[in-house]
Every structure is written in C-alpha cells, then in structure tokens.
UniProtKB/TrEMBL annotation:
<protein>
    <recommendedName>
        <fullName>Pectinesterase inhibitor domain-containing protein</fullName>
    </recommendedName>
</protein>
<dbReference type="InterPro" id="IPR051955">
    <property type="entry name" value="PME_Inhibitor"/>
</dbReference>
<comment type="similarity">
    <text>Belongs to the PMEI family.</text>
</comment>
<dbReference type="GO" id="GO:0046910">
    <property type="term" value="F:pectinesterase inhibitor activity"/>
</dbReference>
<keyword id="KW-0732">Signal</keyword>
<dbReference type="InterPro" id="IPR006501">
    <property type="entry name" value="Pectinesterase_inhib_dom"/>
</dbReference>
<feature type="domain" description="Pectinesterase inhibitor">
    <location>
        <begin position="35"/>
        <end position="196"/>
    </location>
</feature>
<dbReference type="InterPro" id="IPR035513">
    <property type="entry name" value="Invertase/methylesterase_inhib"/>
</dbReference>
<dbReference type="Pfam" id="PF04043">
    <property type="entry name" value="PMEI"/>
</dbReference>
<feature type="signal peptide">
    <location>
        <begin position="1"/>
        <end position="25"/>
    </location>
</feature>
Amino acid sequence: MEPKLTHLCYCFLLFLPLLSQSAIANPSSSPNHSNSINFIVSSCRTTRYPTLCVKCLAAFASKISRNENRLAQTALAVTLVRVRSTTAYVAKLTKARSVKRREYLAVKDCVENLGDGLTMLAQSMREMKRVGRSGRGRQEFLWRLSNVETWVSAALTDETTCLDGFDGKFMDGVVKMAIRRRVVHVARVTSNALALVNRFASRHKS
C-alpha cells in the first residue's frame, strides 16, 4: 500500500498548483468574482449535496471563472485531496493497538478500496486536463470524457464498498464511527464531482 500512496502523493503535487493559485488569489480583486460565484452556485444545484459543493469550490472562483471544464477539474482536484487525506487517516488505524482483529480486516480492506479510488481519481484528473486541450477531434473528446465519468464513478463505488465492510452491529464502535464520518464526507464530495463531470459531458454530447 505504501508505494501506491507514494505515487499518489506525487500525482497530487502535479495538481497542487490548480488549488494553490486559486486559494491565494484575492476574490475581491476580480470584478467578475460575483459572476463566478453565481456560476458555481448554479452548477452545484445539479449535485446531490449543493451546499457542500459550493463550500468546496467557492474559494477557487477566480480560477474557475465561468469555465465548465475548469469547474470539473477543480472539483476533481478537491476530491483527490480529500480522499487522499482520508486514506492516510484510515491507514493509520491499521497500526492502532486498540483495533480488534475483525475491525483490522475491515479497515485494511477499506484502505485498499480507497487506494483504488485514489488511482481512479488521479487518472480522471489527468484525463480531464486532456479534455480541456484544444485541437482534439470530437470522437476523442467524447471518449476521454467517457473515461472520466467511468473512473470517477468507480472511485465512488470504491468508497461505498469501504463502508460496506463495517455493516452489522458487531462492528459498531469508535473505529466504525470515525471512519464512517470521514468516508461519507469524501463520498459526497466525489458524488458532487461526478455530477459536475456528467453535467459538462451532457452539454457536449447533445
């Protein structure tokens, strides 16, 4: 698991400029900031968790502007960061002495699922950047978009599968509660990112 996490940390560093440049920008310095926020709010209405969606993306309004591709890329980048953080947290629990054998196995499986999801999200991020480049034929454009949709959906499935391992009253306890709270959060963030990617795709497939 360590090599995979190391590789994903490297991938994250490649996408960090997308987040950091937006985070340090002064929103009030842009006359179009209000329009960008309105664009984000409007776009987030198509997601299952619109309030969370706006909260995750509002800080990057200057970078997103009113560009749907940048919106989708930023949503994926934010998701990647949060899933990476959650994966690292869950991985630490496998080394906790207080974790019971049955919990340990569930946590271990969860880490593997989240790791697979991270791989899918990293691939999606790279592919979405390719979608945004000019000069692509329509067939390749749609093919790459389909890849992104498939991979983000797979990441969401991995996150859900992680939680399935903690079903049943015999798994109730502090470990389950701590993991569930974090994984439910990242699953919602992933769901929102998928909705924004689907929104972008539907506008270009018609």
